[in-house]
Automatic annotation (TrEMBL):
This is Glycosyltransferase RgtA/B/C/D-like domain-containing protein. The chain crosses the membrane at residues 20-37, 113-133, 139-159, 194-219, 231-250, 270-287, 299-318, 356-375, 382-399, 405-423, 435-459, 479-498. It comes from Methylobacterium dankookense. Keywords: Membrane, Transmembrane, Transmembrane helix.
Length: 594
């Protein structure tokens, strides 16, 4: 047996680099983001998370099939005229490019599925890169890795970047996070880029309007308080937004529609605000040398703002009522207010839908933490900007789930640095202070709340959770809808949430799908499936419907005291000589109109 002498060298000890361990955790989180079965389901069956993702792929297919770049009409939706989409071709284009690139190698079907997997994962990689670089610049490498780890654990982020998520919310997160990073850096060039990102966000969709408005107010406020030192940031943002929004608008809008007002998409009302922001920034920049006091600068900025908002109200009064000015009370009550993303936090909790715990509390905690740190320390401006983008999500998200979609992307910007500070200070902490720091650190990791949501669901398995979500998924799945493709093409009246899947998986047309511009179709589905036999026959005749499709797990809302005729028809309680049952595999019930 060998012995170690006094002069012998000690054996080298193995040490694990904490930074490397954190990267391993990040890699593990990314690799387990999507289950293999989900990835293959998307590749082989175009299984996508949401109806919007299905409709996006329908639009991409139309573009690849030769439909014009400026022609955003979905002609199989409420035929024969179709429905004009308010979505941007700027999102369709890169997905279509991926399909064209992969098609010659894999065939069109697999190329579509693989593109639906790759696009959100590529965007996730870009977002994580932005998080890492943005946090590392101000807080160091460990905080940066921790921020990326938090991003891969945040349920609100994961659902927007999962396989098949080809809708535009992930791009909105990236655009607004980029804007925040540009505001943090400050100066003319970063602010120009930030304004251009804001314009790109407007072109993609209007969900980020509150954040863009607050960013402009923040930069204007800095100029009011600090004067010339803060002018480059204010001027750059105004220039970037005002100059970029016009070519983006022209590039995606048909010339015939340049003068048409839309409250739900980039059009003259929003060009007015962006152009007014540019004009206001230029006026303030020109007058800056003559304004020696903050009060004088405030007066000028307030006058510009009053002219801007007053002009908006006078020229576009319809948009003061929100993006759905033409929606009827029937459609609001029986469709819009039943959509999960329009539900409030109290409504989720009252219904026992505990998944809200995975979304909302971490956002509120991050907003509160950023606000606390915004008043002291060398990085207080960073936390002020983080709070600026977090609080709108916390406030809007309390009333509508969709309000958190953009804001949740800023949780890592707060969580990474805060957890890094806690880890550095933990050895010197004792008692309640230590436990408080641990609670904040773990609370900023969304998976902590996800565990609580799962636990709450396990402890209350019979909680009233509204309509059965599993039944809904089964009814618009590939297995349920694809058999309809065997029938001769015709117009289908089906529950609203099944419409996009029918368009994606069959040659049929649909009357209804969950989009607010198609009020006649939404009305037809609500009245036809929720009313009497006479109501159903009236809608069938009005829209030339050839097939009636129902989902046993999700019957229509009853519009009268007794169950709807379509519901009783689905249960087999009644029959109609003008409807011929069609036997198809799957959970859907199908009738052909005689």
């Amino acid at each position: 047996m060998a012995t170690t002498g006094i002069g012998a060298e000690a054996a080298p000890t193995m040490r694990i680099d904490p930074q490397a361990l954190l990267w391993i955790l990040v890699a593990f989180s990314v690799l387990t983001l999507n289950a293999p079965a989900d990835l293959w389901g998307t590749i082989d069956h175009l299984r996508v998370p949401d109806t919007d993702d299905a409709m996006r792929l329908v639009g991409v297919r139309d573009l690849l099939a030769g439909q014009g770049w400026y022609d955003n009409v979905q002609y199989r939706f409420l035929p024969p005229d179709g429905v004009q989409s308010h979505w941007s071709r700027l999102v369709d284009a890169p997905i279509a490019g991926l399909i064209l690139l992969l098609g010659p190698l894999l065939g069109r079907s697999l190329a579509e599925g693989l593109a639906a997997v790759l696009w959100p994962l590529l965007l996730l990689g870009l977002f994580c890169l932005m998080v890492h670089r943005g946090v590392r610049r101000s807080f160091g490498p460990r905080a940066a890795v921790l921020a990326v780890f938090v991003a891969t654990q945040a349920f609100g982020i994961i659902v927007q970047f999962q396989a098949g998520r080809v809708d535009h919310h992930n791009l909105q997160i990236i655009a607004m996070f980029g804007l925040a990073l540009c505001m943090i850096r400050g100066g003319l060039r970063p602010s120009l880029l930030g304004g251009a990102l804001a314009a790109a966000s407007l072109a993609i969709g209007l969900e980020a309007v509150p954040y863009i408005a607050l960013a402009g107010l923040f930069l204007a406020g800095e100029w009011i308080l600090r004067g010339r030192a803060a002018l480059p940031g204010f001027l750059g943002f105004g220039l970037g937004l005002g100059l970029a929004v016009v070519p983006l608008f022209v590039g995606q809008t048909a010339p015939a529609l340049w003068g048409t007002t839309y409250c739900d998409a980039l059009s003259p009302p929003w060009l007015w605000l962006a152009g007014g922001g540019l004009a206001s920034a230029l006026v303030c920049a020109c007058a800056d040398r003559h304004l020696a006091s903050a009060r004088a600068r405030l007066g000028l900025a307030a006058a510009c703002g009053a002219l801007l908002l007053g002009g908006f109200a006078a020229l576009f009064p319809a948009c003061l009522r929100g993006p759905f000015p033409g929606m009827t009370p029937l459609v609001r009550e029986h469709w819009l207010y039943t959509v999960n993303e329009m539900a409030s936090v109290p409504k989720f909790l009252a219904a026992g839908q505990w998944e809200i715990l995975a979304f909302y509390p971490v956002l509120v905690l991050a907003a509160g933490t950023a606000t606390w740190l915004a008043f002291d320390g060398p990085e207080r401006r960073i936390f002020r900007i983080a709070a600026l983008f977090l609080w709108p999500g916390a406030v809007l998200g309390f009333f509508q789930l969709r309000g958190i979609y953009v804001a949740v992307g800023f949780v890592p910007l707060v969580a990474g640095p805060v957890i890094d500070r806690i880890l550095a200070a933990a050895p010197a902490m004792r008692g309640p202070r230590l436990w408080g720091a641990v609670a904040v650190g773990t609370g900023l990791i969304s998976s902590t709340w996800t565990v609580l949501a799962l636990l709450a669901g396990a402890l209350t398995p019979t909680a009233a959770n509204g309509r059965d979500p599993d039944g809904a998924i089964a009814c618009h799945s590939d297995a349920a809808v694809a058999p309809l493709a065997a029938l001769p093409a015709g117009t289908v009246l089906a529950p609203i949430f099944i419409g996009p899947s029918i368009l994606l998986r069959t040659p049929h047309s649909v009357v209804a799908a969950p989009y607010h511009r198609a009020i006649p179709g939404l009305t037809a589905a609500i009245e036809g499936l929720g009313g009497s036999e006479a109501d159903l026959r009236r809608q069938v005749a009005a829209h030339g419907i050839r097939y009636l499709v129902t989902c046993p797990a999700r019957p229509g809302d009853d519009l009268q005291a007794e169950p709807a005729f379509a519901t009783r028809l689905t249960r087999g309680e009644v029959a109609a000589p003008w409807l011929e049952p069609v036997s198809l595999p799957g959970v859907l019930r199908v009738w052909r109109v005689r």
